Structures are given as structure tokens and as C-alpha cells.
Amino acid sequence: AGRVALVTGASVGIGAAVARVLVQHGMKVVGCARSVDKIEKLAAECQSTGYSGMLIPYKCDLSNEDEILSMFSAIKTLHRGVDVCINNAGLAHAEPLLSGRTEGWRNMLDVNVLALSICTREVYQSLKERNVDDGHIININSMGGHRMVPSADEHFYCATKYAVTALTEGLQQELREAKTHIRATCISPGIVETEFAFRHHRNDPEKAAATYESIKCLKVEDIATAVIYILSAPPHVQIGDLQVRPVEQVS
Ligand code: NJP
């Protein structure tokens, strides 16, 4: 409670649920995305529910580094800095390696990998400047960041999530070497019931229907609960990678 959290991609889906639960736990949450109107609506809902924290909407296109850096300066001016960062924003375009558009690959790299890395660096610098030693960075990864999924449409997306696995492990190592108690974790969800999950299989409606009708998918709240679990762990506990998937999901 009382700490400042940044949640990227807070307009819908997992990010919106995470922002809401952090506000419920008394945090001051900066929620960013391009559709700021949706975050404004969520902020009003949180306020009318009487949650002890607050949600501050911020419009930011995470594929643009200048916009990310301006957001960090605004947070520094208005709220001192970021204590907890949830790198959640992510996207998947169906762009196979043999025929995909470079533009689609670039967009996935920009948001899933580069924005996450830029936010990580900026949060660490902000914590260091203020001598805050108990910050936390949580990356929303994917089961696709641990094993390749069978659909060729998703190979590039998986590659960006394999990068998130490598970057989280690398970050844990750098933080240890810097002798700080700032922690880094990733959460790897299986299928979560969001717009993302449906868009993801848009080129294969049969597969989508088979997947969503045959298993009980995770709810966004299941991932929000995982975030609270990680943030509530005692300071000596490092949760490296939390895999959360539907009971019936094969991998
Ligand atoms: O996705 P969705 P989820 N600049 O599409 C934002 C991972 N995951 O909640 O800008 C700024 O509902 C977008 O905001 P807007 C997945 O890889 C999911 O399901 O307004 N923000 C929105 O708030 C991702 O890392 C599943 O369009 C940008 C958010 O990102 C995370 O979970 C399974 C942006 C996306 O909301 C959240 O996914 C899995 C930009 N340029 C991993 N581009 C799953 N759902 O099944 C996008 O393994 N956003």
C-alpha cells in the first residue's frame, strides 16, 4: 500500500485486472496504453467502488521510446517514481516466418521485447536514484515463452516470449550482481479469456472454437491473483517464473 506501480497495457484484459487489484490493495497505479479512455473508465469504477488506492490513466504508445521516456519523466515529477512495474502489454500478429510481414514482426518486437526492456531500465534507474531497495518488476510472459506452440502463425510471437524468459533471467542475474534486493519475476500464463486469446487464433476459427469450447480457460483475475501472491512474498523470497495454466491445457 502507498507505493507507486506502473501497469503497461492497462486498458483491457490482464492489465486492466492487475491494475484494478493493485488499486484495491491501496497502491497508486499508473495504467498506460493507447486507449486511455478505457483506463479512465476503469479509474472511475475503482473510485466509485471505494478502493483505497487510485488509478492514474496515462496515454502511451509503447512502440515509441520517446513516449515511454516522457511517461517516466511525468511519473517522476508527479509521483516521485515507480516502485513496482508490471510489464504486461503484449500482442501477437499471425505472421508466419515464410510469408509474414516485417511490419508485424517489428510491432511484436517493439512492444513485447523493447518496451519491456526500456521500462525495466527506467524503473531500475528510478529506484536507484531514490535509494529504494525493495522494488519489483513482473514480466507477463507466456507458456509460448517456454515451448513452441504447434501453429506456424505463432512462431514469431513465441520468439518474443522466449526473449522475455531470457530477459527475466538476465535481469535477476544483473540485480544480484548489483547487490540490490529489487526482485524480478515472470508470470507465464496459459490461455486466458481475453480479446487477445481470440484474436490470436483469428486465422483458424476451427482451432479457436475447439480450444475455447473444450477447456475452461483462465480468467484475468487468476493472473491478477498471481501478481498479488508475488508482491506479498517475504523480501527473501524470489519467485523466478510462475506458470499458471488451465487444468485441461496440455502445455
Ligand atoms: O491482451 P489484450 P491480454 N502501446 O490484447 C496494450 C500475455 N498472454 O490481456 O494500446 C501501448 O487483451 C493494449 O492496449 P491498447 C500477452 O502476450 C496472454 O490477453 O489500448 N499499449 C492492451 O491494454 C500479453 O503480454 C495470454 O490497445 C499497447 C494490452 O496491451 C499479456 O499477457 C496468454 C500497445 C493487450 O491486451 C496481456 O495479454 C499468454 C502499444 N503499442 C500470454 N500494444 C492470453 N490472453 O491467453 C498493445 O500465454 N498494448
Task: Describe what this molecule looks like in 3D.
- The chain is α/β, with parallel strands linked by helices.
- The chain has 8 helices and 7 strands.
- Strands 3-2-1-4-5-6-7 form a 7-stranded parallel beta sheet, sandwiched between helices.
- Strand 2, helix 2 and strand 3 (54-59) form a beta-alpha-beta unit.
- Helix 1 packs parallel to helix 2 and helix 1 (13-24) crosses helix 8 (220-232).
- The longest helix has 28 residues, at 102-129.
- It is globular.
- The protein starts with a strand and ends in a 7-residue tail after the last strand.
- The mean pLDDT is 94.
Oligomer: single chain
Fraction of helical residues: 40-55%
Helix count equals: 8
- Going by helix content, strand content and strand pairing, the class is alpha/beta
| Overall 3D form | globular
Strand order of the largest sheet: 3-2-1-4-5-6-7
Which band does the percent of strand residues land in? 5-15%
The chain-level mean pLDDT equals 94
List of distinct ligands in this structure: 5-hydroxy-NICOTINAMIDE-ADENINE-DINUCLEOTIDE PHOSPHATE
Low-confidence stretches: none
The radius of gyration over CA amounts to 17 Å
